[in-house]
UniProtKB/TrEMBL annotation:
Residues 2-161 form the 6-phosphogluconate dehydrogenase NADP-binding domain. The lineage of its organism: Bacteria, Pseudomonadati, Pseudomonadota, Betaproteobacteria, Rhodocyclales. This is 2-hydroxy-3-oxopropionate reductase. The active site is at K170. Transmembrane segments: none annotated. InterPro entries: 3-OH-isobutyrate_DH-rel_CS, 6-PGluconate_DH-like_C_sf, 6PGD_dom2, 6PGDH_NADP-bd, HIBADH-like_NADP-bd, HIBADH-related, NAD(P)-bd_dom_sf. Keywords: NAD, Oxidoreductase. It comes from Pseudothauera lacus. GO terms for biological process: organic acid catabolic process. Residues 164-284 form the 3-hydroxyisobutyrate dehydrogenase-like NAD-binding domain. GO terms for molecular function: NAD binding; NADP binding; oxidoreductase activity.
Amino acid sequence: MDVGFIGLGLMGRPMALNLIKAGHTVHVWSRRRASMQPLLDAGAGDCASAAEVARRAALTISIVADAPDVEQVTLGPDGVADGAGAGHIHVDMSTIAPAAAQRIAAGLAGRGVAMLDAPVSGGEVGAIAGTLTIMVGGDAAAFEKAKPAFEAMGRSVTLIGGAGAGQVAKACNQILTGVGVAAVAEALNFATRSGVDAGKVREALLGGFAYSRILENHGQRMLDRNFKPGFKAWMHQKDMRIVMEEAHRLGLALPSAAATAQMFNALVGSGMGEDDSIAMLKLLERMSGGEGA
């Protein structure tokens, strides 16, 4: 396939590289020229705008920070809609509010472009390995056409429902992962402050009903004090903001998510927004006068 890729940050760069490795022809554009260079070195086509990306490819993909960025690269001047031809499909893999995804999809549909919202889970590690979980909302026929690109980037690809459904699934994912990170950080900090070997506690818990991938992977990274970002804390804060805004719109009580959202606010407010979200452990240590104080 001829695929256009817009947004070459922590996640986008390895995802685009995996498309090239899978044999797809990839055309790239990013607001920061330096971000494009690894893709150009790998053989990607050099584009001067999102519109040029869309002119060169029948399928474009974006993964950017938030809804205003998605709107800018799709519907703004020199955006995807300005360069797209008949039958063009745009896949947005950013994490944005479901209502925003629906609004952007409607705007693109009005200009002859089908949109799929396809946020991902798996972090930088999954992006590099091509093992992302991809949650998709939109038209089933467009999904089938885009599937070869999805399969180059992810191991689990699921069409959830209509426009915005992928973002609903991602919000659910962020509730579970956000609350999970906070819970693991609380447990390990509790063990340490109790004078017990937190590594041994984790080892014991992995054998029971408390097992989770977060305890297994992020728990070990917390013990190793490896806070190098695979998913930055400010991004998880943004995602939890989306969750709480949607809960407010729907009139839903999400008490665990609400408490976790406040913890991420405190984490970012404490100057750790560029750390991985597992720096939640450092925040709890500071609050309790421990190692991170």
